[in-house]
Write a structure and sequence with these properties.
4-stranded mixed sheet; 6 strands; alpha+beta; about 425 residues; 16 helices; two-stranded antiparallel ribbon
Length: about 425
């Protein structure tokens, strides 16, 4: 309950809470309302336990190079067989057409096999639609920093792209797997120069595990696609509910479209009951095996970034990553409603003006919500803050001016989409 003084009280522990209408009201004593949207992805209990175990391994220095190699080998061993599913569908379809008779029956089976192969085929990484290339001639100072960091991390880039999104990441694009750096200007604008060095160093340090990350992502795509194929989707559920509502008013012994919807719905449920358990069990084992090497790679990149850019800048950049979506929404609002305001300035202001209490809430939120591939931010921050290092690479140049043409082009594309 909010009072006239701008304070409220927690309904669970009656602790006095400051109330700001711009942000979520939550309790820092009992964590009431830390997650105002329960539909956020909740990590399973075993994932949280394993994340804690991996963190303690890194904290006490128990992660050795052989152990890391064994974790990577195990991840490949469960990922590669899944990637053979689309190739098996392609080869099986062609084999049925060439060698199996009668043709009408083999053709039907071949179509099913070829559809499976096409639906779950590997796909290369793609850049956002508003991505704009940045050449060395356009941004010589940025490329100088990338060259310095690339020599230290032994990573070579073939290009840089700038887009309007809230992420900065290393990617391998097209079927040639060209290594590029994709810079999201809504996040980039909120970073100080040394924080930008930290983010770039982190992404280049993770590049050495990019092949494993691509393999795991492709295998997860196949598994989740197989599981979704046997489950009724949201549209199927909605059609079934509508058919159940309409059906009583059309009773009379005539088979209607609603009857077909209901029959198809229960056939899908039957297929899920028969064929669904196998991919679901494999996905559960897959997640357990691949969690360790993917989180190892993130922790190693965090430490490397702290060594190159300094602990302080790395911590601040990681905290601002939690607020990147806030900056992107501010950028969109400026493009849509306020044409006189610089969108990148609006994004920077939206991130830098977030109070410490709201940042603390988002850090606590990572304890229960997150993704299996990335360690929770609160653990990453704890590990970084255990030591203090001075930067090896210092950025003093102003990179915004040389990136302005690409920024304006990316903003123009997003403005047209809005």
């Amino acid at each position: 309950m909010q009072t006239e003084s701008g304070l409220s009280h927690c309904p669970q522990c009656d602790h006095e809470l400051p109330a700001d209408p711009r942000y979520v009201t939550w309790c820092d004593r009992c964590d009431w309302n830390v997650d105002p949207h329960p539909e956020h992805h909740q990590l399973a209990a075993w994932q949280q336990r394993q994340q804690q175990t991996l963190y303690r391994d890194w904290e006490r220095g128990a992660v050795t190079r052989p152990g890391s190699w064994a974790a990577r080998a195990a991840a490949y061993s469960v990922s590669v067989p899944v990637l053979l599913v689309p190739f098996a569908g392609l080869i099986g379809g062609v084999t049925l057409l060439l060698f199996y008779r009668p043709l009408w029956f083999s053709g039907l089976l071949a179509v099913i096999a070829l559809v499976i192969g096409a639906a779950f085929r590997p796909r290369p990484q793609e850049l956002p639609p508003d991505a704009q290339p940045v050449s060395p001639a356009d941004a010589p100072q940025l490329y100088a920093v990338l060259d310095d960091l690339g020599r230290i991390t032994r990573t070579k880039l073939t290009g840089v792209y700038l887009h309007t999104g809230p992420t900065i990441g290393y990617a391998r694009i097209t079927w040639r797997f060209r290594p590029v750096l994709a810079i999201g200007t809504s996040y980039w604008a909120a970073l100080e120069p040394q924080e930008r060095v930290a983010v770039i160093a982190h992404e280049l340090s993770r590049a050495r595990s990019s092949r494993l990350a691509l393999t795991i992502a492709a295998a997860r795509h196949v598994l989740t696609g197989l599981i979704a194929s046997f489950q009724p989707g949201p549209l199927d559920e909605a059609r079934h509910d509508e058919a159940q509502r309409v059906l009583p008013s059309h009773a009379g012994g005539v088979v209607s479209a609603q009857d077909d919807v209901i029959v198809n719905y229960y056939l899908t449920k039957l297929a899920n009951l028969v064929f669904g358990p196998a991919p679901r069990l494999y996905l559960a084992a897959f997640q357990r095996v691949t969690l360790r090497p993917t989180q190892y790679a993130v922790y190693a990149a965090d430490r490397r970034a702290a060594e190159l850019a300094g602990t302080k800048a790395t911590v601040q950049a990681l905290e601002k990553a939690l607020l990147a979506d806030t900056g992107f929404r501010a950028l969109e609002r400026a493009l849509r409603y306020n044409r006189d305001e610089d969108p990148t300035a609006a994004a920077r202001r939206a991130v830098t003006e977030v109070p410490a209490r709201e940042l603390d809430r988002r850090i606590r939120l990572t304890r229960r919500c997150g993704t299996p591939d990335v360690p929770p931010t609160y653990l990453r921050l704890q590990l970084l803050q255990q030591s203090s290092t001075q930067p090896q690479v210092v950025l003093t140049a102003d990179l915004d001016q040389e990136l302005r043409p690409a920024t304006q082009a990316a903003l123009a594309v997003l403005r047209q989409e809005l």
